[in-house]
Amino acid sequence: MTPSTHARTLAATEWGGEPLRSAAVEVTGLVKRYGPTLAVDELSFTVPRGSVFAVLGPNGAGKTSTIETCEGFRRADGGSVRVLGRDPVRDATELRPRVGVMLQAGGGAYPGARVGEMLRLTASYCRNPIDPALLLDLLGLSDSARKPVKRLSGGQQQRLSLAMAVVGRPELVFLDEPTAGLDPQARHAVWGIVEALRSDGVTVVLSTHHMDEAERLADEVLIVDAGKKVAHGTPAALTRGEQPTLRFRADATLDADALLALTATLPAGCVAASTGDGGYQVTGPPSAIGPHLLAAVTAWCAEKSVMPSDLQVGRRTLEDVFLDLTGRELR
Ligand SMILES: Nc1ncnc2c1ncn2[C@@H]1O[C@H](COP(=O)(O)OP(=O)(O)OP(=O)(O)O)[C@@H](O)[C@H]1O
């Protein structure tokens, strides 16, 4: 099934929800500590209702701590969190049927239960659940419906966990790395579910390490690093960049001298540099990034017997923005 078919199929199930009022999630000056570790450092953001909101950040940036505080599983050490206008810890009972939670690496299902039973059981606690058989079908789990949960692969358990998070038609869903470790087919199925949720007015807060996923799904992206906000905006605004760029890869390493020599052949104001990941980029005034620049780069490569590949002119990707803001070194 394609994502748009997912959207139509789930929308046809009349997800519903009460009239939209306050933001879905309001986090103000959130602080979360574990002993001496400051995991979240005065983080503030607002998630509009009906939007898909992606939280990005390097390992240990504080994404899970933030999301689990919003889910009511952890208490804030400072600041405030409001979820659907309520306190996620104090008002947990009221929020439970309104908020779906998919934990990191799946989880939440009884290992001995069968897949279909588990989802039907979860659905039985909900007032107006989605048909469990439909969800199993959308997530490619129909053939595993009679299998015990513990016999599922990691990716299948994750998909079951997503099904359990959404079966009750929540108004808001938290998905912590929903596609980590999934194969491409399963990733697309999950994206289809997220798109279906959005088209039905459900708010989705997800964390991910896949920049393409955030760029494709999210209405807004929050980038955190060391517990602090480093960027927030729509993917389009974050990637707009002030300077257009020409990027390419090469079948030979271009050292500093080679890049200087290349720069000398380029239109005025253009500079060639390494991007640090085996690729190269040429930046310059917008008027210079055009056919003459492309011709100059390929002519220089031809003269030096260097084969350029992946040559593209355009805006930065979300991955470029992420690496620029959070650094390229491993932590
Ligand atoms: N239960 C805990 N006890 C002690 N320290 C913790 C605990 N949970 C998280 N931390 C620490 O808090 C910081 C933030 O962790 P968190 O799991 O929120 O980051 P994350 O952005 O979700 O990381 P990842 O992308 O690796 O999942 C890290 O330094 C981590 O080691």
From TrEMBL:
<dbReference type="InterPro" id="IPR050763">
    <property type="entry name" value="ABC_transporter_ATP-binding"/>
</dbReference>
<feature type="domain" description="ABC transporter">
    <location>
        <begin position="25"/>
        <end position="251"/>
    </location>
</feature>
<dbReference type="InterPro" id="IPR027417">
    <property type="entry name" value="P-loop_NTPase"/>
</dbReference>
<keyword id="KW-0547">Nucleotide-binding</keyword>
<dbReference type="InterPro" id="IPR017871">
    <property type="entry name" value="ABC_transporter-like_CS"/>
</dbReference>
<keyword id="KW-0067">ATP-binding</keyword>
<dbReference type="InterPro" id="IPR003593">
    <property type="entry name" value="AAA+_ATPase"/>
</dbReference>
<protein>
    <submittedName>
        <fullName>ABC transporter ATP-binding protein</fullName>
    </submittedName>
</protein>
<dbReference type="Pfam" id="PF00005">
    <property type="entry name" value="ABC_tran"/>
</dbReference>
<keyword id="KW-0046">Antibiotic resistance</keyword>
<dbReference type="GO" id="GO:0005524">
    <property type="term" value="F:ATP binding"/>
</dbReference>
<dbReference type="InterPro" id="IPR003439">
    <property type="entry name" value="ABC_transporter-like_ATP-bd"/>
</dbReference>
<keyword id="KW-0813">Transport</keyword>
